[in-house]
Each structure stands twice: as structure tokens, then as C-alpha cells.
Amino acid sequence: MSLTRDEAWAQLCEWTETDSLRGHARAVELVMRAAAQRYGAGAADEERWGIAGMLHDADYEKWPEEHPQRIVAWLAERGEDEVAHAVSAHYTKWGVSYDTTLDKALLACDELTGFIGACCLVRPGGVTTLAPKSVKKKLKDKHFAAKVERSEVTAGAELLGVDLTEHIQFVIDALKPHAAELGLGGS
User: Fold this and answer.
1) Residues 90, 28: contact at Cβ < 8 Å?
2) Would you say residue 94 has pLDDT above 90?
3) What share of the chain is helix, strand, coil (3-state, %, to 5)?
4) Does the pLDDT at position 58 exceed 80?
5) Higher confidence at residue 125 or residue 93?
6) Is the peptide bond before 132 cis (omega within 30 degrees of 0)?
7) What's the average model confidence in pLDDT over 19-27?
8) CA distance 30 to 51
9) Confidence label for 108 from pLDDT (cuts 50, 70 and 90)
10) What is the DSSP letter of 92?
11) Residue 181 CB contacts under 8 Å (≥ 6 apart), including other chains
12) Which helix (H) or strand (E) holds 35?
């Protein structure tokens, strides 16, 4: 991978001005780094998977109607075809195939990370006291974090071949060490 994390972060910040979307990008980056250890080739995949997580929504704020065309093109111009494909596949409306574990992991981690973040914001203990049972209960409430695509949460776990409860716990565990940085530590 020729693209560095610093270059990726600079591009994200150029196109994404809000702290909330930058925070989501950072959270998905961290979860994807953990996913590389669990589902990928470990250290060999960690940087690429982390950058995929960081950049998956990089063009959403400036060009929501074009998302993810601009970031996919930007990645392809830099020869980051595997990351570009994963970002394309995460946008389920395009119907891009899930060819690699990276593609599957990005779908499995993106929406769920955002949803868990929302769950943390309404709990006094934040991510430190969050359990999969609570997340699953909130998933059933269509009014809570209504923009989260519940079908992508379940489809991602299915694509990875993992139990949804285990995957929820995995994402919680990946976020816990970074609770303070991400603002997920509770009150």
C-alpha cells in the first residue's frame, strides 16, 4: 500500500469538516484495524483495512448525492484498487460484489460501529458498560438511530460468517480502549 495513514487523514479532513463524521471515520478505522487482526492477515492487513475504514465516507459531507464516487475515484487514481473496491461494496445501493474479506468486514463494521456509538451516547457508562443485549434491543427500535441500515448490520455479520452477538461484542471491545478519544466513555 503506497497511501499512508497521514495522507488518508489529510484527504478526509479536506473533504470532511464536521467532528461527528471525522469521529465516525476514526471509530471505523479503529474497528477495521482490529478486524484485520481477527478476520484478515493481521499486521499485513492492518494499515490497508484501517484506511478503508477511515475513508469509506470521506466524500459524503461535501457530495452526499455523489457518495462514494469521489473517494472511490481518488483511491483508484492512487492505485489503491482493493480499498476502492471495498468502499464501493460498502455502498450497498451499487450492488458491488463482496470479493474479499476486506469488502465483507467494511460492510460488517461500518453501520454497526455507528450504531454502537449512538448507543454509547445514551448510556451513563458509555461503551464501558455496553453489552450486546442492549445493542440488539436498540436495533429493534426503528426510531433509535433511524438512519442506520439495520439490514447492513445483519448482512455484514452473515457475510463474515460470524454470529451477530459475537460481532457486536467484537466491535464494543475494539472501541473500548479508545472511548475517551471517541467521546464514547459516558458521563
Assistant:
1) no
2) no
3) 70, 0, 30
4) yes
5) 125
6) no
7) 97
8) 9
9) very high
10) G
11) 26
12) helix 19-39
